Structures are given as C-alpha cells and as structure tokens.
Input
Amino acid sequence: MQKYFVSNEDFNELKITSSDVFHIKNVMRNKIGDEILIGSNNKTYLAKITNIKDDVINYEIKEEKIGNMELPVFISLFQGYPKGDKLDDIIKHSTEMGVSEIYPTIMKRSLFKLDLKKKESKLQRFNKIAKEAAEQSYRDIIPNVVDIIDLKKIDFSKYDYKILCYEEDAKMNEESNFKRIVKSLKKDDKIAVVIGPEGGIDILEYEYLKNLGFISVGLGKRILRTETVIYYVLSSISYEMELK
Amino acid sequence: MQKYFVSNEDFNELKITSSDVFHIKNVMRNKIGDEILIGSNNKTYLAKITNIKDDVINYEIKEEKIGNMELPVFISLFQGYPKGDKLDDIIKHSTEMGVSEIYPTIMKRSLFKLDLKKKESKLQRFNKIAKEAAEQSYRDIIPNVVDIIDLKKIDFSKYDYKILCYEEDAKMNEESNFKRIVKSLKKDDKIAVVIGPEGGIDILEYEYLKNLGFISVGLGKRILRTETVIYYVLSSISYEMELK
Output
C-alpha cells in the first residue's frame, strides 16, 4: 500500500491536493473505496478514498497505525557535495535507511560550485526526493534536506556524538571507534556524521573537525566510495539498536 | 594510489596489456617512476612503473602488501533482477562492501526477460563493473558475476547459512533472525543471500526457499528498496565481524 504525506492543512480537511493526486490517479490507478496510508504530524493512518476529482482527493480515516518506524537516534548527515547526481541516490537511500536530516556540505574537494540562484530549486528537488523515499519506505517523518552549506559555517554544538568518516583512517585499519560509539548510543541521542566528497576530507578540514570534538572512524577494511559510507553507518546503527 | 588487477600471464611478465593501459596513461596520467598497486592471485603488490608504451606498461615489484581486505565470510548474492540499470549500482557498491560473488537472478516478479544472445555481453559488462569497483575499494579479489540464472536452477547445497530478505517479514517486525545468524558466523562460512526484485519475492518462491532451509529475515523497521538490502546485509556483517 502506498503512503502519502499530507500537509496539516490538507489533513484537517481530509483531502490531498498536492502532486500526489496525479500519482494516486494515474500511477497507482486507485479508485474510490481503495485504501491508502496517510502520513501527518509524524503519525500514519489507514485511510479509505471517498472521492476523486481533478485536483483533489478526499478520504476518511479508518485507524491510526501504531508502531514507530524511526531509528531510536537522530542522525544528521553532512555529506560532502559529490559529483554528478550522486546526491540524489544518497538522499533516496539514506532516507530509506533512517537518516533524520541532510546537509549537502561544500568542502574543499567538492568540485561543486554553488550557484545561489539555483540553490532554492535544488533544495526543493532534494526535498521532493526525500519525501518520495520516505513514503516508499514507510517512514513516520520526512527527513529535511535543510541547506546547502559550507562546512565551516555549520554549528555542531547540539550533537552528543560527532563522527568523521576518514579514508586515511580506514587505510590505517582504525577499527574500534565506530563500534564503541554505536554501542554507547542511547535513545534520542543526536549524532553528526561528516563524510567527505570524492577526493576525501582535506587535512585542514580534518584538523578543524578534530578540534570541534569529532571522532574519526574506520568502517571495515575496504575503501568505500563517498556515496556508500552513510549506508554503512545507518545499517550498522539499525543492526545494533533495532535488531535483537 | 590506484590498484589494477592483472592476469596471471601479464603478471608473470610484469606487464599490463588490458584496457588499464589507457586508464594509467590517460586518466591517471602516470609517468615512469610512479607507483601503482598490482593485484594478482589474491595478493596485492606495490609496483613502480618502468616503461610506458602504446599498449603495454611494464613495472617492477617493490613489495607485497600484507593485510587481508576481505570479509571473513563468503557471501553469494542472489539478486532478483531489477528494473533499468539498478544492477550496475548493486554490483558496484556490493563489491565495495565485500560481496564474494553475484548471481543476477530471474524471479517471478522480475520484469527482465533474458535475451540469450545478449547474456554474454551483459555478463562481460557486469564483470567489468565488479573489476573496477574491486580496484577502487582495494579488494584482494574481484567478485565474480557468475551467471544470469533462474531462481529454481540454483544449487544452494554448499551454503552454511541461507538468508531470505522478505519484505512481508520486515512489515511484521521480524527482528531477531538476522542478528542471530550474523552473531553465529565463523570464519570461512558460506552464506547465500536471496533478495527479491522490486515487486518482492512471490509467495510460491518464498515457500520453495523455506523448504530448502532458507531463513527469512527482517532488516530494521523501514521498508528497503531492492537495491539497498544487500548494503544493509554487508555493512552489518562487516560491523559485527571486522570492527572491535
């Protein structure tokens, strides 16, 4: 069953008016009487479609779905801005895997140059990808792609743990920091994860982050690409905290 | 430093004659005297380039790199053949993460129809992706993309553990089977991992696999897309077995 996140406004009037109307009618080909899942205010409801018009769909709520689909910790991903459209996949898959929010982060070795005129439309597109991935993976919330931001402008003070995924440490077989941190996580802890772009984290950035209290971690023996690192981090945290 | 796998033949004569010659000359722009890593017979060597010609590069071995980059267990991925070019990413990233071999597997809900005439060229392309990903991630071996095969034609008898990633179990909050298996893994164990295509595993396939001794596992609370499942599996195994 497909899930759709709706705005508070629409939810109060038990309707859908966004581009999801098109999806429901033309992609899923739903009819009156079909069931869908509605996400609103971090809750999920089983709903029945009661009316389908050109640009609005009405529904009635059948029941609230109980059960929290979220990781027990809050994870902010600071992803070094990568080449091409890799960020699309990173946003999509890290959303499926439970990330809480994402900052595409401009670092020394990012080849990306921020065009301020295009920033808003880029963020809009990234947030659309996150919404669709959150719907498909039955998340309770939509991770926010907050801002495209320069590494040095980020305030990391709110985090309980600050993790830096550093290729050079992986090559030196650093193999205990990550597991030690994950094993000590408690519910609602806030974790910042910084991942370099393709060329990795520059040594000056590394020192800057270390001075802010970041702990550098190796993630197994193989050298991961920038787009794979967050999958390792999120999977391991789910494995450790969610599985029994 | 870039790693290149060379054939036994080329290694015996300390040369490279494959398409890597182009990569070394034109992408990496290496010169005589530069160092590269050479992979051969599951070993990795530090080498120095001694001669560069049009279609051959010679080198001398400086030392053998000690240190095993492989996961301690052998993992065969039976990936339900997905839509579009998703398999390219799955082969690339699961190679980075330590998979041992891959069988693109035709299952009931695969939309893919195998064209026998194209099979060899497809396999060739898949194996090229695996080779490049293995070089980039410093693997000791290149995972073999063995065959495009029908689920029912696979012989699973050699495996110590048989894992079935089943969406319906994830939805029912099955949350103990995977961790129990991973925690009981021993060095050199052989594990088969079956993952459905986009539509998931058909109920008859599910029953067929259960009868063969497969254990169905849930992987955390969120519904993962077909291309993300193996990342969760490999990351968790690395986390459990390689990190301390």
Observations:
- Chain A has a mean pLDDT of 95.
- Chain A has eight helices and twelve strands.
- Chain A touches chain B at residues 67-71, 89, 93, 96-98, 136-139, 173, 175-176, 178-179, 182, 219-225, 227-228, 231-232, 235-236, 238-240, 242-244 (CB under 8 Å).
- Chain A has two domains: 3-65, 74-241.
